[in-house]
Amino acid sequence: MAQLWGGRFTKETDKLVYNFNASISFDQKFYKQDIMGSRAHVKMLAKQGILTEEERDQILEGLDGILKDVENGTLEITSEYEDIHSFVEANLIDRIGDPGKKLHTGRSRNDQVALDMKLYVRDEIDEIDGELKELLTELLSLMSDNVETYMPGFTHLQKAQPVTLAHHVGAYFEMFRRDRERMADIRRRMNLCPLGAGALAGTTYPLDREYTARLLGFDGPTRNSMDSVSDRDYVIELLSALSTVMMHLSRFSEEIILWNSNEYRFVEIDDAYSTGSSIMPQKKNPDIAELLRGKTGRVYGALISILTTMKGIPLAYNKDMQEDKELTFDAIDTVKGCLRLFTGMISTMEFHRDVMEASAKNGFTNATDAADYLVNHGVPFRDAHGIVGRLVLLCIDKGISLDELPLEEYQKISPVFEEDIYDAVSMKTCVEKRETYGAPGPDVMKKVIAVNREYLEKN
To answer: Fewest CB atoms within 10 A around its CB: which of 21, 234, 339, 387?
Structure first.
């Protein structure tokens, strides 16, 4: 078919060039947004007297028919059209004739695609926010059920001090809560309407851009027409935020992979989220967690790609910017899928609480508390540190934990130790006396859980 811009040209575009230039294969995702933007534009044109009310009504009816037919499958979006804007406009003209040719009055494909992309990204941010909220709800449930589930806390992948599963999961709650806040921040900052910017310098038609912005749910119109059509900062911000979401998912997946190993045995992943080996019948592989970890690089790649694309583009619109679509669509779909899978995986995962507590004991995570015991009995901390170091060596030699070491062995190294040392180094005591805000103690943990629950109820 002839292009809508073909008047200037005397030769047909080479087929290879046409295919290379066309975006219909991916920007057809915008059909709803494109029609939504066109409806608002036409209403504004009629309000300003640029179109008659009759023309407005004909165009609106035609646009509604196109939307209905696309959604029920009777109208197919095909590669015969260069882009989604051409598809809508050409079909509108076929249906209603000359009034359809007035649809494009006062706008360019440059501000059209900027609008479509913003509308699409805004909708997807809302969907991603919903997925993040589902995940946070599941994390909060895990926290509520595991305030007294003791486990080792790690630094450098070495057992450090005892914590609870609620406390450990709570760290991820904070991460994903920040992810939601980033999404909300991006949505707020991008919510200005570019329609009416034209190709780059506005238009001589008396458009009411405030009215169009209100119709489309924006906070107002963009303030500079050149920036309006060349801005993809919000795409970069979104891909950066999505990369951070994936980084958080990847970190948690890495821990689940470790916890699922024979050496840890902290968790058992449900059969629905595991696979077997084609040769080793005993294997139960954490493939979903591994794929979640792997797909992080895919989303990072989208971010680096758009940053590289945008770094050398002069004002205003350039065709390079068409490259933002496919990688953004893919990153959004990847993150939404990963969030759903991860939420499902952790909601069905079985935690081996006895193994986790035994690991905390056998890793001497209560050594610091043994040193604190001595300090509370008048021993200088540096001396206490050395005494407990000798106790740990003795336990390693005997293959036991500090909880299992006989009192006489304690007293051989320091006579300060009494029978109450066993209570001081129990997992329960070690955790319960950590009651500063943000620590794993049960009372303060319950306060944090209540704060998190209130946050989810209000947001």
So the answer is: 21
